[in-house]
Every structure is written in structure tokens, then in C-alpha cells.
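Input record, target 12 of the design panel.
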């Protein structure tokens, strides 16, 4: 498994797809304590702006973390860190 730096940026020419890189970076930020359990992460738009990726990339990265049990989504409320 690849370790990610929570302060890393997306490397568009890297062999790992941007959504996987973003998922790893977000997981590392959660692990570092940037976002606490039951608290929301930044909006899709904010992550798009911060990382310079498409909205679909952010959605795929979040879906990976939801599948891994790191995040959960509350419709109309946002995406939250799982306790």
C-alpha cells in the first residue's frame, strides 16, 4: 500500500490515477487529525479548487473512502469522517 503525505499535491503525470492520489491524501489528512470524526470534510467545490482536479475526480476519491469505511455521506448535508 502506498503511503501519502497529507500535504502532497496531485501529480497528473504519475502512474497512480488522480482520484487514487486524492483518496490517499484525504485519508492521510484524516489520519493526521485535520478533520475529526463526525465532522464534515470540505465541499467538493473546495477540494476541486484546492487540488486542481475535476469534480468527477473528487467524487471518485470520496467514493473510494466511503467504500473503505473512512467517510460517510449524508444527503443534502455533506461528507463526514466516520467515527
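The sequence produced for target 12 reads:
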Amino acid at each position: 500500500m502506498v503511503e501519502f503525505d497529507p500535504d502532497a499535491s496531485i501529480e497528473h503525470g504519475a502512474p497512480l490515477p488522480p482520484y487514487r492520489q486524492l483518496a490517499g491524501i484525504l485519508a492521510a489528512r484524516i489520519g493526521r487529525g485535520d478533520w475529526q470524526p463526525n465532522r464534515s470534510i470540505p465541499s467538493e467545490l473546495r477540494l476541486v479548487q484546492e487540488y486542481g482536479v475535476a469534480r468527477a475526480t473528487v467524487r471518485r476519491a470520496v467514493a473510494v473512502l466511503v467504500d473503505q469505511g473512512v467517510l460517510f455521506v449524508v444527503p443534502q448535508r455533506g461528507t463526514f469522517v466516520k467515527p
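The mean pLDDT is 96.
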